[in-house]
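Supplementary Note 3. Input sequence used for the single-chain structure prediction.
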Amino acid sequence: MSLFLSFLIFLQYGYLTVLSEEGNLPVYLDGDYFGKTPIVKEKIKVGKYTISLFSKDSMELTYQKFKRGSIFQKLSSLWELAKYSKATEMIRIAQDSLTEIFLSKKGAEKAKRKAKIYFFSSLSSIFLLGVLTGILLE
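The predicted structure, written as discrete structure tokens, is reproduced below.
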């Protein structure tokens, strides 16, 4: 009986639509190439997935640079990871249902710029705090 139920779940499908502000962008499902935008009502097995505009390999390479690279590689990787995060979504495909997702390459690039701005703003704030502390303690 349990084997039969597992088999029935295996046969269940839903549908996925992936849109973006640009056409012809590569889309990756669980890190593997899935197609190019727009993807409209593509039949897919029921389950949970990660969908992204970036491949698993590019994300893994960036993470390794973050872990093992110089301070400049770590900073650059941090900004890239912010970009990947913005263009990656966790989705759930339900039986006989359409799941629609919008992935934004422009939004991802904007997240990368914001990460840089936040970093340098924080760094300059710490510097100014140090200067003010030095002035007040004299």
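The chain has one domain: 9-137. The two ends are 81 Å apart (CA to CA).
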